[in-house]
Amino acid sequence: MKKRLGIISFFVILFITFIVIWNYSYKKGLEEAYIPIKEQSLDFGIPSEKGVFTRAEFALDYLNMPVDEAHQRSLETYYDNRAYPGAPPSIPHELLKGERGIGGKACLQCHQNGGFVDKFDAYAPVTPHPEMINCRQCHVAQNTQTLFAISNATKIQAPKAGVNNALPGSPPMMPHGIQMRENCLSCHAGPAAPKEIRVTHPERVNCRQCHVPDIREFADVEIFRRTNNHQNE
Ligand code: HEC
Ligand code: HEC
Ligand code: HEC
Ligand code: HEC
């Protein structure tokens, strides 16, 4: 009788442990593999300007960081793997072993805050949009360099840097759109910033206070003639 009781309680314990462990792992499985997206605070005046401040906590570090000349990017290499200005760059490096996910944490471990990656001998550029966690929805891996034939399609010219000031010394206008680029310091500061556009003053933080988007429209006025209003009188 005692033996039987022993065996029964052994199996009861086993069963309870099974339920507990199964329950735990089931709950774990339900958890999102995402980095939680922060709740948007509603008290910010202009949402599109909020991004300007997102990386501001790094501004002083960026200012004091020595420039690593040997590993600088330039606008040329920046545009090398973009189909056209504003297009999502392709992923120029191999993916981590077994990397099948769509992105998220796997990519953010390098691209959220940047930093030097020995394996690729380069600084990881900081993503301006860490909240868009389905990275590979837009960024595709470069699987081949050879399959494509050279065509005579010309690339759309990128806007130029260094020519957007109204006067020498005045703040240049932004020659690019700001959708998905609200986070200025991710491209304009830090070791992965292309050298031509690395900002001398990351610590000023509120970039859009001085830099406005270039939305001028030009009309062809041909030869200008003053209309003489008195003629028709
Ligand atoms: C181990 C760190 C690391 C991981 C993980 C990583 N990257 Fe990168 N990534 C880099 C580095 C370093 C570079 C710069 C390479 C260069 O300049 O040659 C880079 C470059 C890129 C670029 C090109 C950026 C540009 O401006 O041209 C894209 C796009 C990119 N990575 C996307 C991803 C995506 C998507 C994932 C996840 C699937 C990912 N990366 C995972 C380190 C990483
Ligand atoms: C909805 C599409 C989309 C998603 C999702 C997306 N990206 Fe991007 N990404 C873009 C586009 C478009 C650009 C180019 C921005 C530009 O030049 O205006 C870009 C630019 C970048 C750059 C280059 C920044 C630089 O300094 O040159 C990096 C790095 C990057 N993305 C990483 C990521 C990572 C990591 C993820 C996932 C966490 C991700 N992206 C998710 C569309 C996307
Ligand atoms: C995805 C990367 C990226 C982001 C994010 C970004 N920029 Fe730029 N910016 C560039 C590039 C690249 C250029 C050079 C011109 C070009 O190719 O579009 C540039 C040029 C500029 C220039 C002109 C510089 C000159 O010398 O004429 C200004 C000013 C500027 N950006 C301000 C900003 C501000 C302010 C923000 C934030 C609202 C911002 N940028 C966000 C990539 C970026
Ligand atoms: C108080 C006004 C002000 C603020 C705020 C400001 N800038 Fe500037 N910025 C300027 C002026 C003025 C110049 C022109 C400097 C020159 O020609 O010597 C300039 C030049 C630039 C350039 C051209 C390259 C260079 O450094 O000369 C870039 C890129 C740029 N700013 C980006 C930014 C970004 C990104 C921010 C936010 C972190 C920012 N600026 C904040 C006034 C400002």
Overview of this structure, please?
The chain is mostly helical. It has a domain at 47-143 and 165-209. Helices cover 26% and strands 3% of the residues. The chain contains 7 helices and 2 strands, in the order H-H-H-H-H-E-E-H-H. A two-stranded antiparallel ribbon has the order 1-2. A hairpin with a 4-residue loop joins strand 1 (115-117) and strand 2. The N and C termini lie far apart (124 Å). The structure holds heme C (4 copies). The site of one heme C has 23 residues, from helix 5, strand 2 and helix 6.
Question: Low-confidence parts lasting 5 or more residues at pLDDT below 50?
Answer: none
- Give the terminus-to-terminus CA distance: 124 Å
Distinct small molecules bound, one entry per kind: heme C
Radius of gyration: 27 Å
Principal-axes geometry comes out as elongated
Q: Helix and strand succession?
A: HHHHHEEHH
Largest sheet: 2 strands, antiparallel
Individual helix count: 7
Please state roughly what percent of the residues sit in beta strands, choosing from under 5%, 5-15%, 15-25%, 25-35%, 35-45% or over 45%. Answer: under 5%
Major β-sheet strand ordering: 1-2
Q: What is the tally of beta strands?
A: 2
The portion of residues assigned to helices is 25-40%
Mean pLDDT across the residues is 83
The structure class reads: mainly alpha
